[in-house]
């Protein structure tokens, strides 16, 4: 079975490009060129050099000894938190800015929720000297002030999305509307494996460096390329796509996706799309999404701003429906506790998104000698205020 | 013959109006429709509101949000207009985004439209390829005309594909923009209108986006069969209510 995208842009039943005709030329230009451009030796060389010299790759595959002892399994952490800008997001923005340049684009737009993708986009735009406009929900601008300041320092213009619920999905709508209004000079750097084909595949390919490195590193450490499980948190799902990518079609490797249950799956305040979502269309992609019976898209909730997306990338929707992926949801409370645990046991403060992936071990039992690789997708600096308030640390 | 096709054969420039169902008040859908007909419009697009209208600018976004807040749903719209053919005989098109249709069930949605007497559908985010592969046969079974959009960026080759797949009219988006954005037409539009006219397509074209007054209506219909007004109408409806509709239509086509 093939769990990657097919030539029509679908993962099983999911994917495609459900876009207004106004976007067709932009998306079609990208579709016709993205693989060709990515395979150019010059592109490869520049991409790999930037990942090495600028981002700081390869990131370590770290054996978390004390965390492992606590749960009686062998847990490795893929340290994407050590990437420049503090999360895996930059792997994709480096790739897409090089793509944009080759397509002759001079103006970059992006959406951002918590601000991590916005910062990663503003960073590469500064690096390449390109104009950068980041759409961010008015509500998020208020609660993520440090990242707004970072983007501004990097030279980006941050535009407040005032429509709908004024959060990530609305910032994405505004970015898409900007693209409709600027059809020739602008490239839209989507931050996750969402949106119309070819975005989910393109972003997954740029993030696939994560699992490519894991294979090599695990071979050195354990004498085998394949762990028993790869684990990642899933909002839209880009860090997950990165760590699953080279294992998708390898049935020996279990795939575990961890979604945000928020205050509980049935609390009405959750972002567990696989449990609560139904097939539908969001941001140009057919996938699972949270919506009313009438097909209106609803606003999800999670303590982590990076997981509160009402949909999930089509790759993940297919992993869920086909049963290839095991989907687990973790509440705010369990995630926060796991984040504190990792901090105290390993000296690593994880992003709250990542903390969800770290929280599965109380309920999900593994065999004693199982080797588990968790994608430590981001560092927790951006979440300090949330941690401080939650644990009353001040 | 479908009412749209019949109207397109008439020797006149067509004025089509878009409005959002359930706006300004939930029960305004039918009164707005009837007042538009009384005011002499040739065709009406009934907007089914959606939470995330990607192709729309602030005016239609705002009317959609308000309509949803009022309690508008797909089922509610169908219920409101179930007897519309007793009072209205001009072509009626439902315009909305694909997700609410998908949740209602594509076939059930089409069947309901046919039962009510809807003549066509505009679903901006249901692209040509998906339509042809999965839905065309259903739409045709219920004699619903699917209307596709083209823009100044659409290549001649793709316009021909769209023309082939169409059996009513082509919705010609006047400029690269979301709805309600453009301020008047310049050389870019004039050249684009001429380019499309020169293609001698089998389907007539109706221009939308940026039509807001007598001048833009005249400019659009100089080469095209008609024009669609959305945002400018919603603005007028917001400011002047249903009683202002006749004056608004008169200001477009005295």
From TrEMBL, chain A:
<feature type="modified residue" description="N6-(pyridoxal phosphate)lysine">
    <location>
        <position position="89"/>
    </location>
</feature>
<comment type="pathway">
    <text>Amino-acid biosynthesis; L-tryptophan biosynthesis; L-tryptophan from chorismate: step 5/5.</text>
</comment>
<dbReference type="InterPro" id="IPR006654">
    <property type="entry name" value="Trp_synth_beta"/>
</dbReference>
<feature type="domain" description="Tryptophan synthase beta chain-like PALP">
    <location>
        <begin position="56"/>
        <end position="378"/>
    </location>
</feature>
<keyword id="KW-0028">Amino-acid biosynthesis</keyword>
<comment type="function">
    <text>The beta subunit is responsible for the synthesis of L-tryptophan from indole and L-serine.</text>
</comment>
<dbReference type="InterPro" id="IPR036052">
    <property type="entry name" value="TrpB-like_PALP_sf"/>
</dbReference>
<protein>
    <recommendedName>
        <fullName>Tryptophan synthase beta chain</fullName>
        <ecNumber>4.2.1.20</ecNumber>
    </recommendedName>
</protein>
<dbReference type="GO" id="GO:0004834">
    <property type="term" value="F:tryptophan synthase activity"/>
</dbReference>
<dbReference type="InterPro" id="IPR001926">
    <property type="entry name" value="TrpB-like_PALP"/>
</dbReference>
<dbReference type="GO" id="GO:0005737">
    <property type="term" value="C:cytoplasm"/>
</dbReference>
<keyword id="KW-0663">Pyridoxal phosphate</keyword>
<keyword id="KW-0822">Tryptophan biosynthesis</keyword>
<dbReference type="Pfam" id="PF00291">
    <property type="entry name" value="PALP"/>
</dbReference>
<keyword id="KW-0456">Lyase</keyword>
<comment type="subunit">
    <text>Tetramer of two alpha and two beta chains.</text>
</comment>
<comment type="similarity">
    <text>Belongs to the TrpB family.</text>
</comment>
<keyword id="KW-0057">Aromatic amino acid biosynthesis</keyword>
<dbReference type="InterPro" id="IPR006653">
    <property type="entry name" value="Trp_synth_b_CS"/>
</dbReference>
<dbReference type="InterPro" id="IPR023026">
    <property type="entry name" value="Trp_synth_beta/beta-like"/>
</dbReference>
TrEMBL record, chain B:
<dbReference type="InterPro" id="IPR002028">
    <property type="entry name" value="Trp_synthase_suA"/>
</dbReference>
<comment type="pathway">
    <text>Amino-acid biosynthesis; L-tryptophan biosynthesis; L-tryptophan from chorismate: step 5/5.</text>
</comment>
<keyword id="KW-0822">Tryptophan biosynthesis</keyword>
<feature type="active site" description="Proton acceptor">
    <location>
        <position position="56"/>
    </location>
</feature>
<feature type="active site" description="Proton acceptor">
    <location>
        <position position="45"/>
    </location>
</feature>
<comment type="function">
    <text>The alpha subunit is responsible for the aldol cleavage of indoleglycerol phosphate to indole and glyceraldehyde 3-phosphate.</text>
</comment>
<keyword id="KW-0057">Aromatic amino acid biosynthesis</keyword>
<comment type="similarity">
    <text>Belongs to the TrpA family.</text>
</comment>
<comment type="subunit">
    <text>Tetramer of two alpha and two beta chains.</text>
</comment>
<keyword id="KW-0028">Amino-acid biosynthesis</keyword>
<dbReference type="Pfam" id="PF00290">
    <property type="entry name" value="Trp_syntA"/>
</dbReference>
<keyword id="KW-0456">Lyase</keyword>
<dbReference type="InterPro" id="IPR011060">
    <property type="entry name" value="RibuloseP-bd_barrel"/>
</dbReference>
<dbReference type="InterPro" id="IPR013785">
    <property type="entry name" value="Aldolase_TIM"/>
</dbReference>
<dbReference type="InterPro" id="IPR018204">
    <property type="entry name" value="Trp_synthase_alpha_AS"/>
</dbReference>
<protein>
    <recommendedName>
        <fullName>Tryptophan synthase alpha chain</fullName>
        <ecNumber>4.2.1.20</ecNumber>
    </recommendedName>
</protein>
<dbReference type="GO" id="GO:0004834">
    <property type="term" value="F:tryptophan synthase activity"/>
</dbReference>
<dbReference type="GO" id="GO:0005829">
    <property type="term" value="C:cytosol"/>
</dbReference>
